[in-house]
Amino acid sequence: MAPRPSRPHRVRDIAEQAGLSEATVDRVLNGRGTASVRAVRSVEQALLDLDRQQSQVRVAARTFIVDVVMQAPERFSAAVRAALEAELPGARPAVLRARFDLRESADPAAAVASLDAVGRRGRLSHGVLLKAPDDPDVAAAARRVAARGIPVVTLVTDVHDSGRAAYVGLDNAAAGRTAAYLVARWTGRSRGTVLVTMSRSSFYGERERVEAFVGQLAREAPTLRTTVVSDTDGLDATLAGAVREALARDPRLCAVYSVGGGNRAIAAEFERIGRECRVFVAHDLDVDNVDLLAGGMLHAVLHHDLRADMRRALRQVLRAHRVLPGAPTSVAANVEVVTPHNLPARLLPT
After folding, report:
1. What is the architecture of the domain spanning 172-304+338-347?
2. Of the four, 75, 99, 102, 184, which is 20 to 30 A from 112 by CA?
3. The pLDDT value given to residue 268
4. Contact 98/68 with Cβ under 8 angstroms?
């Protein structure tokens, strides 16, 4: 049905964005009958998404809807969302819109449910950008989506045997080796222990980073040991206790390689007991890390351009639909080392 003149979006567009039927959306918008709390929230979020992406709408161009299924701390998923929405207006030659299913905890069952929901939408989805655990059930769900003609592009961390069209994100092994090189040089290869923190060992990309780091550090600085803390989801509340226990166990713990985030909590635990963290290397220029880097708590951040990742990911979706020439291709980004001295001016705290 036609929307009211005061409403800037068609019911059909809202329904596609929310993944609901037009009848359900109409009930929510006009208060006809009853609608579940979940449906109301989905429509509200769809309207917010469409408002942000309205500059994308052009006449006589095909519209592609991409579903983003991501399990990551809010600070990272927010950065990904901002990067993707910044790239949507420049997408050519199609109009692209994005729907977001974002969760903070790594949960294979939830990822399966999200992927199956995309599959049930069928033609209402044209691609999936996926960050999820490397789990057989998740892989099977991704294959089901791909079998419906919906290409899956894995982001940041890959999922084995998933039928995905491409992987886009950091070269994780190179990042781990780079972190080991920095830690070895900055500690002077003295004796001590390096704390390695992961959000979830089920994320393949994080395992790649850690395995490369441990192997390279053994070659670069054989007098340094490593201890690994995992399965905290990279959340400050859960990570703080794990780091506290690691510091209490090992008085020689003097450096950190943070693979999965939660760096405010890590810095706070060192400060709480008055122990110097001689080298602190982390990933991603999110809001927390920019602040910690500018304040001298972090010594280096291993960064890659999320907007470039999103641009490449969207390109692979369009290639899968033959809108752009060429086959979908995995693209691993090079790592950039950012210190307090080359922090981009636009990211400095005001």
Report:
1. 3-Layer(aba) Sandwich (3.40)
2. 75
3. 96
4. yes
